[in-house]
Amino acid sequence: MTPILTITNLTKSYASGLQALKRIDLEIHKGEIFALLGPNGAGKTTLISIVCGIVTPTTGTVIAAGYDIVRDYRAARFRIGLVPQELHTDTFESVWATVNFSRGLFGRPPNPAFVEKVLRDLSLWEKRKDKIMTLSGGMKRRVMIAKALAHEPEILFLDEPTAGVDVELRRDMWNLVRGLRERGVTIILTTHYIEEAEEMADRVGVINKGELIVVEDKTTLMKKLGKRQLTLHLQERMTAIPPALASWPLELNGDGTELVYTFDAHQAESISGLLRRLVELGIAFKDLNTRESSLEDIFVSLVSARA
Questions:
Q1: What is the pTM of this model?
Q2: DSSP 3-state of 102
Q3: Calpha distance 149→99 (Å, rounded)
Q4: Which residue range is the domain that position 66 belongs to?
Q5: Do residues 94 and 117 both lie within one domain?
Q6: Does a structural domain hold residue 299?
Q7: Among 31, 177, 213, 244, which residue has the least CB neighbours within 10 Å?
Q8: pLDDT by residue (tens digit) across 107-139?
Q9: In whole angstroms, what is the distance from residue 275 CA to residue 261 CA?
């Protein structure tokens, strides 16, 4: 499959000595939803800003939809939409005027029907004549998304699109992103809400201290790095784990009332052996429950390991 976005040997260093990006190599395929995760200051926004032509890289190349972002800037930028973290809107303009203006900036001919559809999809149609200065923060965020979609981009960057917005907009955003993917638009999403990535992404990249530390299919990543946990709620408090249970990596929690077994998915068959051994040792439990790692657990463990 030919990638729609190819990033090769990309670095960014500043005069202060700060190395914001350390050799980023990444391919993103047409029509996928790619979630870029990382703590504050990891380099997510720097990477997006370079691809969108806002920041100049120190080294490396970026090819967007077949166009080099430096040599073929206009052609590349025409194919990219960006919803930035910060709200930058034309305060005194109406919603309709600013979205149409954004479309025209990229050389697209007027298309009132398309702009109307974008505004309706974002629940902005009833606000189309309102000045942006009169809108709530959530509505302004919707306008930013509408502006990014106005010129029908092939690649859409969403940089923390639902930060600080209400649950309704977050739900609308998820539905909109799925609809765009169905139409072939490639989505690159940065988010602090790990459940967004877990809900929507096809692949996940984790960036930390300017370095891309993992890129993996979401399902494969969770299977490879995910853990399962069995918690046994004991009938009687235990002060120490008996030597006879040394074959299992167990922990005592809850002041000795919980016995916790953490295991990989392929080790699930060892649960039955553990339960049999508990019975043989006369260790009774009144309840048990299991849980699987979330994408957030995996993200935290990856970043902590590189700290």
A1: 0.75
A2: helix
A3: 9
A4: 3-223
A5: yes
A6: no
A7: 244
A8: 899 999 999 999 998 889 999 999 999 998 888
A9: 11
